Amino acid sequence: MTDIAIETEGLTKQFGGFYAVQGVNLQVKRHTIHALIGPNGAGKSTCFNLITKFLQPSSGKIRLNGQDITTTKPAALARRGMVRSFQISSVFPHLTCAENVRVALQRQMHNSFKFWKPESVLHELDDEVDEILKSVGLWDMRGAMAVELSYGRKRLLELATTLALKPEVLLFDEPMAGMSTGDIQMVVDLIRKAAEGRTVLMVEHNMGVVADLSDTITVLQRGQVLAEGSYEEVSNNPEVRAAYMGGHA
After folding, report:
1. pLDDT above 90 covers what percent of the chain?
2. How many CA atoms lie within 13 A of 221 on its CB side?
3. Domains (ranges, CATH) in the chain?
4. How far apart are CA 113 and CA 22, in angstroms?
């Protein structure tokens, strides 16, 4: 198996006469944390949505573990072990925390979701549900409805459901958006833990988080790759500094 988990070749997305992403060549090494950053309008979200197949590229190739996934649907990608999160929490609001995680775990039962059978048939998942909820600090709220959770805890629950899918590749779209300082540190620790034995690609604006977590950083500007390297390398790059108008890269 190739050492590259995710690869793009000439990835381009055109909206009319505007190129949101143009000729992006990206390589995300297996079992690393790779951050995609850039100033507003750089094309980060478009590139992320292309890789996760929520947008179809105008041209170029996308590969997962060396296999072409350019035309693969998002659900099929999830079945192949590539799972993404969203900026807005995507949990089921009127299910409990435990039920949300259990819905994700049912995928491994290979028999649909057994909606027509008694709930008791799903009790075999209870231990695993508890283990996942403990890993994200939500075990004491296992019976709480998701709608009752604070924003930060909803994001933790979303991470729990993502982990329940047993992904090989995790993609995070601004995982720290809207979080308090305390919640941010908790999620940083959880992402670091979740990344053990997995590949992570994330779009993130919080540069402290990027510096703390990332092995490799790709900087986009106007839909193209401006720089790539470690945090130290990109933060000291004069072009990156100019792109951020003198801010910290």
Report:
1. 61
2. 13
3. 1-81+169-249 (3.40.50.300), 89-166 (no CATH)
4. 41
